[in-house]
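Step 1: inspect the first sequence and its tokens.
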Amino acid sequence: MFNIGDAVVCIDASDIPSPPWKPLKCGGMYTIRSIDIITELDGNYDKNIHKKARFVVRLWGITNPMHPVYGKELGYADSRFEKIQPNVQSIRVKDKIAI
């Protein structure tokens, strides 16, 4: 699950109908701007590879048009992205600076 502000990398930019969606770049890094749960009213995700997507995400720097029926900005299936994990290295006891 993603949170607003998470850094993500696009792992699948295929089959995005452009227009109306703005294209994504596979390997491109993005930041999550908003998240909505996918409901039965939110579209036809059951007909493509992203049928198991549970959320729609919107990204900073990309603004898609509003859906004419649902009145929400078009988003991307969360399954198109992976969260970027920070490279955290733990400090070992012997690496600590003695005071």
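Step 2: inspect the second sequence and its tokens, then contrast the two.
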Amino acid sequence: MISRETDNILVNLAKIEKGISKIYQHLSKKDIFTPPVRKFWANLMEEELVHEKVFNDIREQAKVDDAFQFEIDTNLNELKDFVQKLNRLLEKIKEENVSESEAYSFGATIEIELDEADFLKKARTNDSAITKRIKQIEEETKKHRAMIINYSRGIR
């Protein structure tokens, strides 16, 4: 069972992942980008949607399993601010003609400066499968960060 506050945190973590996926989806559909670049953003988008599903699955498991425990020591207002930053970034990307290089800079902003996985460092659960899935999110976020940094520097 989880508290109402933890449920709200999970809702906002899912919104963050969904918001990131929307940004990456938008970048994956840019006609001016080369096919490999569009595919890169589409792959990241898919991974972010998997991350969103993890948080939704945690919420669902908490509803049906009274023995399930999940706690996360995160400020809900910080998460809401993060969601707003992502929404502003998405609007900016939609309004501007973004080059491939600028897209990598936006991605770096998301994966480095905003770093959604940072919120997960304070999560605790009694479920080893959930712990594994959270670690997967952390590892994939690190991978995204490294790839985007390298691509922004012209290293492929």
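Step 3: confirm your contrast with the notes below.
Residues 4-64+72-152 form one domain. The chain has a mean pLDDT of 88.
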